[in-house]
Amino acid sequence: MKRTIAAVLTGALAIGLAVTGVTTAFADSNSPTPYTVDAAGVTLPSPDTFPANGDVNVTYTQAGVSAQKSIHFDPNNNQPGGAWIGKSNIPWSGFGLAGNYCITWVQVSLYNAHFGEGGQAPFCVTTTAQDADASLSVTKATCTSAETVSLGTLTNAKWTSQLGTTGPGTYTVVATADSSHLFSDGKNTKTFTDTLAGKSTTGCASDPTCISDPTFSYSYNGEEAGTVTATKPGVRSGTLCAPLYIRATTWTFDSPVNGNSPSWPQTLVGYNDVELSSLGTVSYTAPVVELCKQNDIYASFDGFGALYVPEKLTAPGQPSEPQFLHAALPGDGPNPTYFTSASTGCDHVQPVATVISGLCYWDAGQKASFKTVRFEFDNTLSNVPVFFEVESNQYIDNSAYNRTVAAHSIVYVSAQASWTGGVGYTVHAGADSFDLSVGSYDPCPPTVATCTTTSTALTSTNLKPQGWTFDETRTLGTNTYTAGTPTGGLTIETHNNTNTDPEAGAVGNGTPDQRKAAGYHATDVLLSAIGTPSIAYDQTSGSLPGINLTIDKDGDGGKDGNLVYEPTLFGADNWWSTQDLGVVSTKVIPNPSYQKSFGTLNDFLASWPNAKVIAVGYSLGSGAVGEGVIHSITAGCVTYPFDYETITAGVPAEVTFADSCGVNGDQVNVPSLNGITSYTYKTVDGRNSAGVGTVTVTAEPAKGYSFGSDVVTSWSHAFLSDADNKCVTITGDPRSTDQVCDFTTLDGVVQGTITVDAVTGAKYVIHKTTLPATPDVTVLAGATKVEPGDYLVTAVAEDGYTLTTPYSWPYTVADRATNCQETTLPAFDPEVTPSNPVCTDGSQVSGYLSIDPSDPLAYFIGSQQLTGGRNAMPAGTYSVLAVAPAGDGVSGTNPTIVTISSLSALGIACGSLTTLAFTGVGGLALYLFIAAALLLAGAAVMIMRKPRHQPRHLS
Length: 955
Known about the structure:
- The chain is mainly β.
- A 7-stranded antiparallel β-sheet has the order 29-32-38-34-35-36-37, covered by helices on one side.
- The longest helix has 14 residues, at 924-937.
- It is elongated and about 200 Å long.
């Protein structure tokens, strides 16, 4: 038949029983704990011990990460927590803790008070030395420099990042402890971050109007040249209150006949003056004479007037000379600052003067051309310069040709020949004289004079045109100042109306006559003095530009067209005019429709002797297509240069790098330009497919801009491999199991689990996403028991490691522990058979209770268990309690009441009988009391369990 075990608690039996050895605590959770938390672990007060089915939960921090550990005292199936049942201490190793960590919260199921909720400070365990240290040094801002931070000393650590160490702005610097070392806070990194100020503006003196106390230094090559430099600490530029005046002078030996003093007397050759008026460096060079000379470098703070030098020196100090450079700047350079050459072979030969006649010369005063007299001064055989002086019996401006002729040279001087007759001349060359005479010559055509010297005008640039205008440029032409090496210039271009280059100017409009680029600079020079006009031009493509001279033909101030020089089209020396100037020439006009006159400059001068050039310039067009760079134009013995001035591009923002796991984890952080057009960033990426290699980013100035010499414009970073970066890749997913029934366990239920595999450098956080919430659990490996619900498992990198990608897995642990309780069936009679006493052979045989020895149930009367077979019992009524083995379920009612009647009650008399003792069992009331106590104490396994298999019926 079915057997059922039910818990029957009468009002008389439902009494409170004290559990021996357990202190019941009713304090609040924030009360002082009765247990201790120290280096030994968690220790209970005597005589308390950890009970079966209790638990201890701890929360701790390790390397800055908070996690939880739990121990459940499960007495069944050799569960690990069962080892602590009956003990009063659990060391921290029992929770699997090692290394450096801090306990922040403890909950023991025996007590209401929790460590960490009553004001207790965390208890920390340190096994790794916390002896790492790092520091920074900050230099405060001054009036001339911003606040800066520099890396300080390190102890058992290294710097692993550094950003923005110069103000103004915020910096962040990170130090990482060496292996087996930590900082004082238990962490392996220490971060410094703060804001640096820019230059101070408080109490700063304004810049002086001039610099009164510079430091001077100089160099001297020992013969004729050197430099002088003025500096001031902390100041880059400025005007000196007292300039330094430098005169580099050259003398030659006159007649070295005195054996004792072969270099005297001396004659002044000349000098070069240099003024140092601001901070910086100037160079000086004396006039160059190869032999028989003395070079003296003089200097003064009192102006060039204090540096007067006489024409002749007869001996040292006669007459007196200015102070030398080494005397003006004592102790700051070489001494002496003069040079005397050897005097051997310095005797000189007197030069020869001759006359060459027959050249044409234009006399502007008489407005006529005449044959000229040309003097040739030959000084090639002399070792010293010679001064030539010409005397004439006619009024002549002798200063035009009286001059000093250098040694070893020939100089030609043209003098006007009188139209009235012959001219006599006397030439003095040193101590020698020559009488020369020239007859009368017939007038000759005028000639444009060649330039003996050429001056340089101010350079025209994109910032300073210096008088150049480009008004005559048309829609399909451009004039653009451009930089170059070694010098820039003016790029000119004409293009057709299909050009699509926006930088070339107007696009898609105009006709061929709009192809013109032209520029002019106003001037006022006689055509006869225009010299030989030229243009320094680098051709890129197409046609060449022509040189243009705007002409006032009669000197009345009016513009009479342009003279145009295009030698590649019309031959050398040939010019054409935009207006008819009536030039008489043997040459044929190439295109009379717009080339109105044609000839050489001398042809135009012959027709218009008083003509002036009122503007010089160039023209590319009309109609021609070409491109090139004009570096300079020369006309009227003046050179007009072009160049490009760069504009400071500013200081480019710093490029930073992030070196993480995988190619996608590597970052090159190029700052946004945010409208900046003065520079751009260029990136050269040398990484391979695995992301290993060097990336270089360079800031490049835009056209027209440049960076200062002290500006950082390039940043590089060598990206590491994932192995060097200690990157962690997780290849296997966690697994989960559901909660199910299992009759092999005491409570009939197997908990659900989430299992993770150990991966070096990673740990896992198990987070419940459904209510009721439970604390997160951090594990390294193995199976973790969890209640049914939804969970998110997340991988977290250990200190010093990085995950290649984020890892997280959702899991649901289902409650599949169903039908674990048998259905209660109707009551049944227990298989306990009572037998009444009998009389045999005049003796009384005791009554007994019979138990089938094969019955798996255990039967109790009170605390006394009945044995299989017959159990002798005195007459009476008994409450028999049936108890099933662990994991089994039995249906029915329980306990069962059985009665053994006495012989007297049965009407049987056997005389004097002996009563068999029923050892160990007292009265029925005592049995019931003990049975109730056993039930309350959990000594018997009762029915109503949840079975983990189909119900087993016991019969």
